[in-house]
Amino acid sequence: MNRRDFLKNAVRSGAALTLPLGIEPFLSIAGGADRPDLAVVRGASPARVTSAAVNELGGMRRFVSRGDIVVVKPNIGWDRTPEYAANTNPEVVAEIVRLCYGAGAKQVKVFDHPVSDARRTYKQSGIAVAAAAAGAQVSFIDERKFKDMAIKGQLLKTWPIYTEIIEADKVINIPIAKVHGIATLTLGMKNWMGIMGGSRGRIHQRIDESLVDLARFLKPSLVILDAVRILVDNGPQGGSLSDVRRLDTVIAGTDQVAVDAFGTTLFGMKPDTLGCVRIGHSTGLGNMNISRLRIKRLTI
């Protein structure tokens, strides 16, 4: 039984999406001891730095196989154009779509559950046009496709999750780095709120534990942190160019905690000051100790 069939059966039966110890259903990557844990690439072209970051990790064929259905999950939450750094950079999203098809993907899907009006957000962000031009199937969220899933987290036990992300063969998370009034920062783990149904605001009371539960359940094959522009004030939607800092950088990795840990440093923070990073590290989801990570830095 392949991953997609296994997950479909789990959804139908209401079973928890767990496998025996040591088996990772969302991550199947071979070898490569010489590869970095994180690739941090800087340059003027968002598409080029994105491609270079993936190449430093071994190339997209390491993550996507021929015939795969891939979900690419950006942040498309707000009615803002790209220069305001409220949504993932459209050029970064489009390049990941192109790389997936280059690796042999059968289909690449792009969607999010916006806070602002979806039609305006998809258009204003630039993501709908850019991703579709790269060949992606760009769709609005269909509320009928949320189904209760057995998260079995430390805090979240069940929650309605968008089934298209569960049914995909591979998932690539592409958040943008920005400040957030409740979560402190929006990075990779926070980006999973975009596939939650129900009353998402309910998790705000204990958001860090909830995000770690989601991240463990939805473990992606690859995380691409967009830091082409970062929002340093008035997050999560901003609204003034004075809130934005341009870094022209993309960070790529497979460890959600490590990517988010590095993301904190873009804002002058230490990784352990961000709750979801600290909890993710302490519960074994990933490694927040940047000094112990193999980081490849490159300027192109």
- CATH class descriptor: Alpha Beta
Percent strand: 15-25%
Calculate Rg over CA atoms: 17 Å
Sheet of most strands: 10 strands, mixed
Low-confidence stretches: 1-31
Number of domains: 1
- By CATH, the topology is Rossmann fold
Share of helix, binned: 25-40%
For the residues shown, what is the average pLDDT? Answer: 90
Q: Could you give the distance between the termini?
A: 42 Å
Which descriptor suits the 3D outline? globular
CATH superfamily assignment?
A: LarA, N-terminal domain
Q: By helix and strand content, what is the structural category?
A: alpha/beta
Secondary-structure element order, N to C? HEHEHEHHEEEHEEEHEEHHE
How many helical stretches?
9
In summary, what is this structure?
By secondary structure, this protein is an alpha/beta fold.
Produce the secondary structure layout:
Layout: H1 3-13, E1 38-42, H2 46-56, E2 69-74, H3 90-102, E3 107-110, H4 118-124, H5 127-133, E4 137-138, E5 146-150, E6 158-162, H6 163-167, E7 170-174, E8 176-180, E9 184-186, H7 207-217, E10 222-231, E11 244-253, H8 256-265, H9 275-282, E12 295-299
Parallel strand pairs: 1-12, 2-3, 2-7, 3-4, 7-10, 8-10
Antiparallel strand pairs: 1-11, 5-6, 8-9, 10-11
Helix pairs in contact: 2-3, 3-5, 7-9, 8-9
